[in-house]
Amino acid sequence: MTIIKLNEKENFNKVKKLNLSNSSSFINKNNKNFIFFSKYELTSILNLYSKQVSKGFWKDYALDSKANIAIFSIYKHSHDKPIYQIIKKSFKGFRNMPDFFITKDSEIINKSTEISTILSKFEKKLSIRKYL
User: Fold this and answer.
1) What is the rounded end-to-end Cα distance, in angstroms, of the chain?
2) Which residues contact 27 (CB under 8 A, 6 or more apart)?
């Protein structure tokens, strides 16, 4: 990564001469190792999140993407550690079936290869039942 001060005129000429095609290929090569949530997975997670926010259980979330792991963290308060984390883990990119985990305090609660089964079991644990 090259950091350039744009306040000086001579550095402006250096910016014009930079070859941007090399930097874009470098960025694309690095993104292949990172795992992200797909649109379907993210909408499923955000639907669950919005239900829990409307009930007042959850207040904040964070998305994190690392090599071979994507994490959706759920917080009760903004300054606390996450209550739950939904983790997508895949070792060979998007071609393999990823594993999904739900963790609470670094303890795995649920594990599956499909996000829908993870979230359906997760909703059941959070629901309150009344007995007559």
Assistant:
1) 65
2) none
